[in-house]
Amino acid sequence: MKRLITLFGAMVLQAGAGSLQAADPFPSKPMHLVTALPAGVDAYVRVLANTLTGQLGQSVVVDNRPGGAWAPAARAVTGAAPDGHTLLVYSVVILISKNVQPSLAYDPIADFAPVAKIYGDGASVLYVSPTSRFKTVQDLIAVAKANPGKVTHGGSFGTSSHLQAASFLAIAGARGFHVPFRGPGDDLPALFRGDIDFSFTVTTVTLPLIASGKLRALAVTSGNRVKALPDVPTLREVLNNDLLIQENWTGFAAPAKTPREVVMRLHAETQKAIADPAMLKVIDSGGNLPAGNESPEQFGQFIQREYDKWREVVKLSGLKLDQ
Fold first, then answer.
1. More confident residue, 88 or 286
2. Bridge partners for 90 per DSSP
3. Distance CA 232, CA 124 (A)
4. Which of 244, 268, 297 is the last residue of a domain?
5. Over 70: is that where the pLDDT of 136 sits?
6. Residue 183 pLDDT
7. Does residue 24 have a pLDDT over 90?
8. Using CA atoms, how far apart are residues 42 and 39, in angstroms rounded to an integer?
9. Which DSSP string corresponds to 21-55?
10. Are residue 146 and residue 111 in the same domain, yes or no?
11. Are residues 99 and 34 in the same domain?
């Protein structure tokens, strides 16, 4: 009997070892990077996909799902298996959209497992046309205060550009008028015609136009001045309010309940990919900074702080779609 028990125990251990050996290592199939960015303006995502393909030995495919306040991209990941093979290119826009429209069918905190930040400290630029009467932020504020609702600004409805303008005016004690446009840079023709007075857009769009003299930068929304615009102040400097530090950043998030060992593998591979020269070049060209080596838990804490901050920005702006 003892021999039978010993033999049975050995068989169980052997079967368990065999099943572990048979388990597929991660990644075991092609991976998908889901982004709400349309093809053509997703350069850094594609560079990351190529780099990760080489590192992981599996194809890493970019899955573009633009529009819908990022909800289609978010839902594609929340509905995926929590095995690390589907990642969301997680952006500050996820948090903004949910605060503006709480009915969106995703929870930006509970539905995702933070993996790693890709870049941060990115600024939007408060800009005017080169022929504008506004030479400084103070000029703009003075005219807006003297003419409530008359100074106009562009930007897509409910996006960061809209909220940046609305919160800037509110903190300055002024009131403007929002003219909606479809996407970043779509308001430029109207600005050049003089149909709108100012706007906010990310540095990836504005830096080349500022360098060529086609736009005049008045301020930036980052905590520190932008390297490419050393003489342009931050709005925080001008108005002394931390809510005006409204930076652009992005990272990876997996579906909630993704195993920790998979999250940590993805974190390590992402950190390695960020350090690749091709990736550093594309991050720098957009006026952004590569993220530091913060842990998934630290990234999650950062996301929560950003979510809380944008709730305050939305409240300040008075903008809500679910009313």
1. 88
2. 251
3. 12
4. 244
5. yes
6. 67
7. no
8. 6
9. HHSPPSP-S-EEEEESSPTTS-HHHHHHHHHHHHH
10. no
11. yes
Q: State whether the Cα torsion 269-275-280-283 is positive or negative.
A: positive
Q: Exposure of 263 by Cβ count < 10 A (0-12 exposed, 13-18 middle, 19+ buried)? A: buried
* C-alpha closest to that of 285 among 224, 210, 207: 207
> CB of 195 within 8 A of CB of 207?
no
Tell me how many domains the chain contains: 2
**What's the pLDDT at 185?**
72
Query: What is the structure's pLDDT at 184?
Result: 67
Phi, psi dihedrals of residue 125, rounded to the nearest 5°:
-110, 130
List pLDDT tens digits, range 244-290.
Answer: 999 999 999 999 999 999 999 999 999 999 999 999 999 888 888 89
Residues 122/227, Cβ–Cβ less than 8 Å: no
Q: β-pairing, 289-290 with 112-122?
A: antiparallel
Residues 216 and 78 in one domain: no
* Amino acid residing at 159: T
Centre a 10 Å sphere on the Cβ of residue 284 and count the other Cβ atoms it contains.
14
- Please determine, for residue 213, whether its predicted confidence score (pLDDT) is greater than 70: yes
Q: What is the mean pLDDT of residues 178-193?
A: 85
- Nearest CA to 124 out of 209, 241, 205, 36 is that of 205
Is 323 a residue whose pLDDT tops 60? Answer: no
Q: Scan for tokens 């944008």, then name that residue.
A: 310
Same domain for 114 and 253, yes or no, is yes
In a domain, 289, yes or no: yes
**Contact between residue 86 and residue 55 where contact means Cβ atoms under 8 Å apart:** no
Do 196 and 226 belong together in one domain?
Answer: yes
In angstroms, the CA 142 to CA 24 distance is 64
CATH of the domain at 129: 3.40.190.10
Domain C-terminal end among 194, 213, 244: 244
164-181 b/e with 16+ CB inside 10 Å = b? bbbbbbbbbebebebbeb
Mark whether 79 and 131 lie in a shared domain. Answer: no
- Please tell me whether residues 53 and 110 are part of one structural domain: yes
